[in-house]
Design a protein that fits this description.
The structure holds 2 protein chains of 2 kinds.
Chain A (H helix, E strand, L loop, with lengths): L2 E3 H11 L4 E4 L6 H8 L4 E4 L3 H15 L3 E5 L3 H5 L1 H9 L4 E7 L15 H5 L5 E4 L6 H13 L5 E7 H5 L1 E3 L19 H13 L3 E5 L1 H5 L3 H11 L3 E3 L14 E4 L6 H9 L2 E5 L5 H4 L10 E6 L13 E4 L2 H14 L5 H7 L1 H13 L13 H11 L5 E4 L3 H9 L8 E2 L10 H11 L5 E6 L9 H7 L5 E6 L4 H10 L15 H7 L3 E5 L2 H13 L4 E6 L23
Parallel strand pairs in A: 2-3, 2-4, 4-5, 5-7, 6-7, 9-10, 9-12, 10-11, 12-13, 13-14, 15-16, 15-17, 17-18, 18-20, 19-20
Antiparallel strand pairs in A: 1-8
Helix pairs in contact in A: 1-2, 1-7, 3-5, 3-19, 9-14, 11-14, 12-16, 17-18, 17-23
Chain B lengths: L1 E9 L4 H11 L6 E6 L5 E9 L2 H13 L3 E6 L5 E12 L5 H10 L3 E6 L2 E8 L1 H15 E6 L3 E4 L5
Antiparallel strand pairs in B: 1-3, 1-4, 2-3, 5-7, 5-8, 5-9, 6-7
Classes of the chains: A alpha/beta, B alpha+beta.
Chain lengths: 566, 160
């Protein structure tokens, strides 16, 4: 058997898994690994902050469906990554995070740059490892990739003591991984599928409620087939956008706190809710007892803990979304008592009701002449990129406007921190996405607050000739919290006024990027066009209506039918 | 409602903290917990007693099962089972109470495991309620120290 150094073995494992790009930041504990990387064909992207490394790996993972990899040093390197690891964990994004650790004889001695990162990340990783023995190195890395990408995906951290990585190890041949304690259920129970399908045939007002699981399992086609076959309206969570074409007449857009009027009304009046890869998050359900009160609930999820966690489910289906939807489509295709025309026609009155709701309160905003409305900026981005760009976001109003007004017609063109709501996510994630797909337009929709949380990654974008575009919706406020203060705290703007904000045009220039600004509506289009045709990293600074709010809005703890509207 | 849950898990460093971290992080409660290796030294058996309605217990068992190092989760109460707990009690035993203490220990089928001029150390095993009962009886006499193990449990073999 071949003997190679631990660090070489790790690189070999990465290559074995098809890793082409990793994002990292060096330090004493990982010099060996960086050294070994230099001799490999893997691109090592040097970020400017470890949070950026993990977000970039996360952005790459979301748009490609592959496992993203980050390499951080021990101590502060590892702890700086924690927010981004938690971000990936909440959204079930497959990552392998390699962290350096002090040499094994020093562990527990409060050595320089020592931290118990396995202890710290236990609750925010799918699984994690401290490799204490070099002979476990190769098998642990293989297991880490296996766990990250299978079942409900998630981040897996592998902590690598410096002496372990320096030892010579046997590079064993890769065999299929079979773990006694970890065997996710992919195939649905046929009995449950039949039960669900029969229930669907009984429904008059069915709704498909689609979450990120559909994206993660690449089930968008199967979902679209089911929805169209049966004429069932579809609503998506923030994570599910792109799982069903946003421009399809069956799409009601997003549901929940900032969802569309029609989507929230439809769920509230539905008699059957088919949840696919969604987890009944509080931002979706609002007040739990008023959520889908008349509906029978079918829930497809690969993670049994998601089922009946928040809402009691009538027909649970533990399975991969793609497998379950395929099984349902097959059931309908072969069921003798299924008359497609009849079923489609029977849902027409329900669709007409939904269309009425959409007409009554469409996703809209009030135009105010030359004042730039943020929604208009997103509409223009959608139009000028033909709905084909990869959009990442920061968190807050910018994120919600992007979700509401960009029409996502395909999966994996949308990367946003949904569960954790991490400001500072968008720029590094955009870099990760652009590194994966250099030919695609990648835009980070940002606010003036959140962009500053990882603005240093502009240097990374420049260094790797990664021409991402940043669209800052600049209102000199931490806008979403300000909105809550306006609506629920008597306009007391505590801690939300950004009295000092950098000149983003000059800031872009300082990094060697291009800065553009629009202060009037009539300038928006020209700025976007210039940004899209510039082969450089660009910041677009849109000075928007300062106190614009995101509507519709379901106030926290209210029923989703109690929407504040434009 | 009280539930006794038995968990088989990999005997590896940090596994116990995955279990306890799950309980604290998700706001589940642990009334008692007991863990030791099984016949197979690479596998540990953990017995924990918790409280919650059906939905909470369902979440607890599913969440435990989701931990990568967990092999098997059984709600022992789903079938007939025996449960035992052990307690060591140091009780005051002076001239006027020594005889009475011994009588109580005898009733509970306990054992005296340490004797001093002014106290006995007593070992008692039984269900949690039996253990509680002897503690309640000895308390007025004067308990100086107690150590309880937490419950362990085993399903009864099928009668067929």
């Amino acid at each position: 058997m071949e003997k190679i150094s631990g660090s070489q073995a790790i690189i070999r494992c990465l290559q074995e898994e098809g890793v082409k790009i990793i994002f990292g930041f060096p330090g004493g504990a990982v010099i060996d690994l960086f050294d070994a990387l230099m001799d490999s064909d893997i691109t090592n992207v040097l970020v400017r902050h470890e949070q950026g490394a993990v977000h970039a790996a996360d952005g790459l993972a979301r748009v490609t469906g592959e496992v993203g990899v980050a390499l951080l040093t021990s101590g502060p390197g590892a702890t700086n990554g924690v927010t981004a690891i938690a971000t990936a964990y909440m959204d079930s994004i497959p990552l392998v995070i390699l962290t350096g650790q002090v040499p094994t004889p020093l562990i527990g001695n409060d050595a320089f740059q020592e931290v118990d990162i396995v202890g710290i990340t236990r609750p925010c990783t799918k699984h994690n490892y401290l490799v204490k023995d070099a002979k476990d190195l190769v098998s642990t890395l293989r297991e880490a990739f296996h766990i990250a990408r299978t079942g409900r995906p998630g981040p897996v951290l592998v902590d690598l003591p410096k002496d372990v990585v320096a030892k010579m190890v046997d590079f064993t041949e890769k065999k299929p991984i079979r773990m006694q304690t970890y065997q996710p259920t992919y195939e649905p129970h046929p009995g449950q599928i039949e039960k669900a399908c029969k229930q669907i045939l009984k429904a008059k007002n069915p709704v498909l409620y689609v979450g990120g699981g559909v994206i993660l399992s690449n089930a968008n086609e199967e979902l679209t087939e089911l929805a169209r076959k049966l004429n069932i309206p579809v609503t998506m969570t923030l994570m599910g956008l792109g799982g069903f074409p946003g421009s399809d007449p069956l799409s009601m857009g997003m549901l929940g706190m900032h969802g569309s009027y029609s989507a929230n009304m439809a769920v509230a009046h539905s008699d059957l809710l088919i949840a696919v890869g969604a987890r009944f998050d509080d931002r979706v359900t609002g007040r739990l007892d008023a959520f889908a009160p008349h509906a029978t609930i079918i829930h497809i999820d690969i993670d049994p803990t998601s089922i009946s966690k928040n809402v009691k489910v009538d027909i649970p289906i533990v399975a991969d979304c793609k497998h379950a939807l395929t099984a349902m489509n097959t059931w309908f295709n072969t069921a003798s008592d299924f008359n497609r025309e009849q079923v489609m026609a029977s849902h027409e009155p329900w669709r007409a009701t939904i269309d009425e709701w959409t007409k009554k309160h469409p996703m809209a905003y009030i135009d105010e002449g030359e004042i730039i409305k943020p929604q208009y900026v997103i509409q223009k981005l959608d139009e000028l990129t033909h709905g084909d760009a990869i959009i990442t976001t920061e968190v807050g109003q910018n994120q919600m406007w992007a979700a509401q007004f960009y029409k996502f017609n395909k999966p994996r063109q949308w990367a946003t921190s949904g569960g954790l709501g991490t400001m500072g996510y968008g720029l590094p994630a955009a870099i990760g996405a652009k590194m994966a797909f250099p030919e695609k337009t990648v835009i980070d929709v940002a606010g003036d607050g959140s962009i500053q949380m990882n603005i240093q990654e502009l240097a990374t974008a420049k260094q790797y000739k990664c021409p991402v575009k940043v669209a800052i919706l600049n209102n000199n406020y931490l806008g979403m919290v300000r909105q809550w203060q306006e609506l629920f705290y008597n306009k007391r703007y505590a801690g939300t006024v950004m009295e000092v904000t950098p000149d983003f045009v000059l800031l872009a220039q300082a990094y060697g990027a291009v800065g553009l600004r629009a202060t009037k509506k009539s300038e928006v289009e020209a700025v976007i066009k210039e940004a899209l045709t510039t082969n450089n990293t660009v910041i677009m600074d849109f000075v928007i209506a300062r106190e614009e709010c995101v509507f519709p809005m379901v106030p926290a703890g209210k029923a989703t039918t109690e929407m504040l509207l434009v | 409602m009280k539930h006794t849950i038995s968990v088989l898990l990999q005997n590896k460093p940090g596994v116990l903290s995955r279990v306890t971290g799950l309980f604290s992080g998700r706001g589940f409660n642990i009334e008692s917990l007991s863990v030791a290796e099984t016949l197979e030294p690479s596998i540990s058996c953990l017995t924990l007693v918790t409280r919650g309605d059906a939905a909470i217990i369902e979440q607890i068992t599913k969440q435990l099962h989701k931990l990568i190092d967990v092999i098997k989760v059984t709600d022992v109460g789903d079938s007939e089972y025996v449960e035992r707990e052990m307690v060591l009690i140091r009780v005051k035993a002076e001239a006027q109470t020594r005889a009475e203490v011994l009588r109580v220990i005898d009733i509970f089928r306990g054992k005296v495991v340490d004797v001093s001029p002014k106290s006995y150390a007593v070992e008692v095993t039984g269900s949690a309620s039996k253990v509680q009962a002897i503690i309640d009886i000895l308390k007025p006499i004067g308990i100086q120290e107690i150590v309880r193990t937490g419950t362990i449990a085993m399903a009864r073999a099928s009668k067929k």
